[in-house]
Amino acid sequence: MNVRRVLATAHRVLSQLRHDPRTIALLLLVPLLLLVLLFYVFDGEPGTFDRVGASLLGIFPMITMFLVTSIATLRERTSGTLERLLTMPLGRGDLLAGYALAFGVFATVQAGLATGVALWFLDLDIAGPAWLLLLGAVLNALLGIALGLLVSAFAASEFQAVQFLPAMVFPQLLLCGLFAPRDSMQPALEYASNVLPMSYSVDGMTEILTNAQATSDYWRDVTIVATTALAILALASITLRRRTA
């Protein structure tokens, strides 16, 4: 992997996104609006937002980054841009690392804004420091980026890319422990939840609610999320196609 090529790719993607205000609004504003909406949905149930808010602070960025990354990468391939880029001395790993870096910049800004709104505008009550919450949100957004890059290799159109959302994200959402404790599920579902990265995302964010300092469980959970994101990114570089057949 060539650092110079990765940075050049990231710069190109960021330049394109800068001229796309609708995508920027989707990346930066939608998670904030969803958090605010969720806060008022649970306004009549004290403590409910505090219980689920931290988890959704990671889940919402993951979903938005998944959508934007998968569609943006697929558009590069269907327009022929990807094929032209790969005729240059630019490896697939360089290309996807550049995409991940570019969208990672937006993921960090997105997570920072969402964390700030949750803590200081919506008064999300956490026992741990804010930077641990921010770290968890950023890693979840990076996981969404990696999943989006992987999906873009298999979708033939933007519509198909969107269709991958319920297939890859919604099962994780249902089994992550947000709606019911994972240890109370049927054995097969509990086993499935134990291998899905969003389960560890929710567990890690929940640790911050009740512990004043980062626990070993928290570091285990964020390490699993980060490692999974890197593994998916590596798989995406292997499966990336030059063009849509």
Automatic annotation (TrEMBL):
A Pfam family: ABC2_membrane
Superkingdom of the organism of origin: Bacteria
Keyword vocabulary terms for this entry: Antibiotic resistance, Cell membrane, Membrane, Transmembrane, Transmembrane helix, Transport
Domain ABC transmembrane type-2: 22-243
Subcellular location: Cell membrane
Membrane topology: Multi-pass membrane protein
Main location: membrane
Membrane spanning residue stretches: 21-42, 54-74, 95-122, 128-154, 161-180, 222-240
Protein family membership: Belongs to the ABC-2 integral membrane protein family.
Protein name as catalogued: Transport permease protein
